[in-house]
Amino acid sequence: MKMGKQGARTLRADADAALDVDLGWWSRLLARRVTAALDEALAPSGLTSTQFGLMCLIASATDDTLGALAQRAGLNQSTMSRNVDQLVGTGMVEVVMTEADRRRRAVWLTETGALSLQQALALWQPAHRALLRKLGLEAHNIVGEVAAKLAE
Question: Which of 2, 112, 12, 108 minimizes the C-alpha distance to 57?
Fold first, then answer.
């Protein structure tokens, strides 16, 4: 299908207008920029913001099984397993079979992982506050509120 000059201009304008308001586009752009800022702040800890988030998820888990962590993170178990395996390789995390059910794998931070997370938290806190101020966000839980609305 061939488009004339008018059709191309309309498509360009329509695409530009869609991009201006597309939640998917803007959320990914925001995520990339926030991730870059947090990666920079966390660099002295040796952790990326992704590793930091996963370690916080593990440290705060009431159910430490791989399946529960995956569900809480909104990931499938296979993806969660790959992410956890990377942290296992660094010595930050251990994965063990549970006593009650040998098919279930429990995940927790090693002592090294806990110390690294503690150091990273000290770097993350001021960086996170600065990002909230820069974005003009008062409520620290605004992201959680938005996520809850989308889950409805």
Answer: 108
